[in-house]
Amino acid sequence: MIHSIKTVWKENNIFETDVDGHNVVIDLAEDAGGNNAGPRPKKLLLVAAAGCTGLDVVEILKKMRIDIRGFNVQIESEMTEEHPKQYTSLKVVYEFEGENLPKEKVERACRLSFENYCGVLAMYKKAVPVTYEVKIRNL
């Protein structure tokens, strides 16, 4: 299977990409010479990782018939100061809210995504240390 995208320069530092029929704009911050018309490319890498593993976890929990009220994925990353600026580590934090959530099943869903299913995290793990943590808040 081949995935292909085309990113088009619009003006100044603004680029646009059509991704599955959705327009994605990337740009630099104003203090870096951009117009702040969209997010920065490296942060979109974090969005991709959070979205990939989040989708996995939701689907796994649906199959387990676990009802969650709230769920978010936060990614904490460290980046070099020198060029080329790049991430040196990632920590994925899965945060859940619900009533009487079964800790073992929720943790298993996260572990399955983190270790077996999320292709974006799999690529990151080849480049930098990646860890995860699960937080559950029962309502």
Automatic annotation (TrEMBL):
This is Putative redox protein. InterPro entries: KH_dom-like_a/b (IPR015946), OsmC/Ohr_fam (IPR003718), OsmC/Ohrsf (IPR036102). It comes from Petrimonas mucosa. Transmembrane segments: none annotated.
